[in-house]
Amino acid sequence: MIIILKQNTTTQQAHTLLEELEQQGFKHHFSEGEHSMIIGLIGDTSQVDMQQLLAHDMVEDVKRVSEPYKRANRKFNPDDSIFDICGRLVGEGNFSVIAGPCSVESEEQMIEVAEAVKKSGATFLRGGAFKPRTSPYAFQGLHGEGIRLLLEAKRATGLPIVTEIMNQHHLDLFNDVDVIQVGARNMQNFELLKELGHCNKPILLKRGLANTIEEWLMSAEYIMAGGNERVIFCERGIRTYETFTRNTLDLSAIPALKRLSHLPVIVDPSHATGLPWMVEPLAKAALAVGADGVMIEVHNNPKKALCDGAQSLTPEQFDAVMKKVTALAAFENKKI
Amino acid sequence: MIIILKQNTTTQQAHTLLEELEQQGFKHHFSEGEHSMIIGLIGDTSQVDMQQLLAHDMVEDVKRVSEPYKRANRKFNPDDSIFDICGRLVGEGNFSVIAGPCSVESEEQMIEVAEAVKKSGATFLRGGAFKPRTSPYAFQGLHGEGIRLLLEAKRATGLPIVTEIMNQHHLDLFNDVDVIQVGARNMQNFELLKELGHCNKPILLKRGLANTIEEWLMSAEYIMAGGNERVIFCERGIRTYETFTRNTLDLSAIPALKRLSHLPVIVDPSHATGLPWMVEPLAKAALAVGADGVMIEVHNNPKKALCDGAQSLTPEQFDAVMKKVTALAAFENKKI
Amino acid sequence: MIIILKQNTTTQQAHTLLEELEQQGFKHHFSEGEHSMIIGLIGDTSQVDMQQLLAHDMVEDVKRVSEPYKRANRKFNPDDSIFDICGRLVGEGNFSVIAGPCSVESEEQMIEVAEAVKKSGATFLRGGAFKPRTSPYAFQGLHGEGIRLLLEAKRATGLPIVTEIMNQHHLDLFNDVDVIQVGARNMQNFELLKELGHCNKPILLKRGLANTIEEWLMSAEYIMAGGNERVIFCERGIRTYETFTRNTLDLSAIPALKRLSHLPVIVDPSHATGLPWMVEPLAKAALAVGADGVMIEVHNNPKKALCDGAQSLTPEQFDAVMKKVTALAAFENKKI
Amino acid sequence: MIIILKQNTTTQQAHTLLEELEQQGFKHHFSEGEHSMIIGLIGDTSQVDMQQLLAHDMVEDVKRVSEPYKRANRKFNPDDSIFDICGRLVGEGNFSVIAGPCSVESEEQMIEVAEAVKKSGATFLRGGAFKPRTSPYAFQGLHGEGIRLLLEAKRATGLPIVTEIMNQHHLDLFNDVDVIQVGARNMQNFELLKELGHCNKPILLKRGLANTIEEWLMSAEYIMAGGNERVIFCERGIRTYETFTRNTLDLSAIPALKRLSHLPVIVDPSHATGLPWMVEPLAKAALAVGADGVMIEVHNNPKKALCDGAQSLTPEQFDAVMKKVTALAAFENKKI
Q1: Which of B333, C93, C173, D240 counts the highest number of beta carbons within 10 A?
Q2: Whole-prediction pTM value?
Q3: Which tens digits make up the pLDDT trace of C285-301?
Q4: Does position B259 have pLDDT exceeding 80, yes or no?
Q5: Are A110 and A139 in contact (CB under 8 A)?
Q6: Handedness of CA C252, C257, C258, C260 (dihedral sign)
């Protein structure tokens, strides 16, 4: 960590700060130039509060040299993480395809969609039992009953299931769930993240609406700090001024995360764009850019969907997308 | 609600949609022009899922005419809401000043700050007992002990207290708290909002990092739909590309909310900018633009603050700000 | 175009507006529901000023049904445009690779880079002679001499050249240039666009820092309205809150433009990210998402580059990228 | 300027960079810590290209300590600039009110508006003769004839005039104009800025749609570097995800600019919001936050306006706004 002092700071003032830092247990090197004084802080600075340093009148700026995350950091785990989830491998050379409806609505719907997506090559089944909705008057999900229906679809098809949690006190209901999803609006629900750090399920961590890549890594760190090392990132678009797409899919986040972290990263083109005809080109782009998988919304009857119908593919459309994705995965040497 | 059909839709196709809408209990008027067909939906459309309508192949676009919120809507409550909180009035002609440290650290700190801000004219005391921090390694607050210290400071000064909740299952600890704050990162933590709808405390609802004014109103609606009508909005800056300030304070949100809703709105210039020297001009601007109050961070020793020290005012600086704000409030006919 | 009137508008008031519209030569159909009145405007509304309609007290909202652009619109030109530029085809099944340094610096540099990128498979040579720089004290380009050096490099290699114009009064210097680039900061320099509408050179139109896809199409329309139909879009990242990359590359803009317009679209991963190690994955993603080409910065000595050295590839790095891109292009059936 | 080297850099490698910097004429101090090596660059670094330094493999990051602008910098000009424009003072204790229609349409319109705004207390008359429009099919202004009509309105009322330039080759037409406006879309039209550096007219420099405060200062620096020291900033809202207002007015930019620069800053609430009922509260907020003036759109018949009618005030509405603004200005000790 580097602390840059203001131009008119006296050497004496600087030394009071140096002493303070020493008392906090930090070594430092101090360099005094013609126009600036700089302090380099040595040691584990991941717990240093930059705001506190900036509160000193004499401090111009503070700059981290090392990242504030450790367990999620590739520097300390150079090899790609790979997770075995019910026999499906996620990460490092595998390309996971998570498909299913936005929300679980009925047994018939779930079985029909699950069988269809499995046939087309999906490796995981998704479906929302707890739905975060902007309006309190909108359908909020079937809750426990929704999870029961997901498990029936899993029994019928063998596909491991992915579903979203909104409240740590529902965790008991997730005992048989294979992957727990944290939605974009809960990416910085730190109480939830802490609790998930103590469960032994893989966590699919979606990026928040307007969160930076570093904040996203820090949210993974929250989960990992509790002991749960199995975090999968999911890029789902960020909020920008552009309104043609629902969000702006940030595909450059994939190589960024791959460089900074060892954890797998998947892409959700359905939520990112809200436009079903964009799913195929963006799923292919996700594969080409290095993602470890995609999550795609599929509904047997989008017009009757209780949630996000407009962005869902029909099983036939999904099948067409999968033909293209499968061919490209073979070319890229990725196993689906 | 207006549904615009695609150009090549046949009258017959349109009629299948009309029938579907009738079955859902909606009246409609249908208008067929040379180049476009339009359906106007009549009745309570606040529960209509626009996404579901958009999933129909023949639908080009859907447009709401009436707002999706009711209890927060000025149309149904033309008069400004005014809340009496321990004898302090919030809203309609009153200008509330909430001041205190980012986080509660010790009894000495809280009493010292509380007495100082009261003397300068603050009407509420703030302090964080539960702290949402980006890093799991940062100070997370004193929790129950923090609330106990806030209550001691209230006993010493008579100032009602405002403090943040991060998890609905901590509600028991908030029994004697006067105003419960929902932080920016939890603005769309719908599970928390629902629970707060059932408590009888005023809620200070901060705007999310990248949430629209309509989403913010919908989050208030979540609380109000549960029966708790006392919601106070708090604008604290939104995330933009500009990095000079920590966030970009959106003061146009104040007249917007005043027009759309009857609820009070306050402004937090400390978090919005992260720069203590910006607090005075922006607090004055908040008053001039029509806000019902401000929330300002004050710490007796910003350099030693365990959280956000860089943006805190000292009690002396706060006193200087209050002199300016008090004079302007008198000019604007607002009671502090 | 659909005009939605405010709820309390009387039929009589509505009729005054209808008459006004008739006088402007528009046919309309008027539909009066229980809670809303709607006017559908028939005829060519591309020249209607929505702002003017919104200025009427009785107007709640105005919504376009048809796009405000025509010549750039795929509806009126269903087939992909394809341009022959010095024997190189751009668009429809071709994948153009434009490579070269950010700025032209010397004859030696240009010849060396041009020969290297040609050998690796580039189809166009780029290089800046006029450089838009944030600082007036930064290197502004070699101007006429820069164009002369580009032409020498063209003579040596046969590669057609692409270079940026900043001022319509320099057009004489661009007589032998093959493609004229309009930079992001000039995307809405309408005076420049109008002038380029009268020249007979293909125009590479970069997206502005914070411009919508529709505004971008309208800027193409400016050029095309003047008679110059050869416009090539270039996505180069938009400005968002994320700072890890210089800009946020919006790859969803590619399928969007492909659906809305018949014009070719290329992608510039170098400027979008500012990070040379991101060029390979994003160039591949651009290809997979359906772009018609890429523009990549290559410098023989990035450390000595007078402009944007940090984001340039060395010729060796470019060669490695091209091997991957060429293989993927073959898989995708695109000709480089 | 501080250069932070990557962790695994050897002392020998560092020395090759130090030598390079010495050859470029820089003094430096080099500091070698346990985990990091830092180079402090001494001397005038305003012309150093950070990109070029970042292109070195061994460089982790580069950080400016001093600002890259000089003439616009308050450090070198501690006192507020004050400009006398036809007897009207702009800056330092004065509050300028620039009012008039978006575009000049007719003599009758201009005289009527000019007389009305003068009566209400405006100090400058605005009106667009050259109009930057998103669509090539929209009204583009009366050009030379528009300027002639502005000058007639000036003769009739004595109000100095402000009008926008879009092309440096129109400068001859601006000989009798009092303040030349550079619009948001031209804030980084560097060719135009350079030319305006050589004219002796005050320049009203609007902030670009998505430009940072530093970029804005650099654009002022472009003008000032040419010798024209009279630049007035105009904040007009930035582009964000929020769509309720046309743009998001960034009032925190006012105290920021006041701290960083000595130049005057005004605020345009009309363009920022696009909503006439927001002008009054935001004009008052602009005054309270420390701006040196406002620019407000006024049209004698907004419904017939050829441009941006929806955001214009009528003369009666403007008069009501001015009563509030004048009273607040008196309170704040600002002269209108």
Answers
A1: D240
A2: 0.94
A3: 999 999 999 999 999 98
A4: yes
A5: no
A6: positive
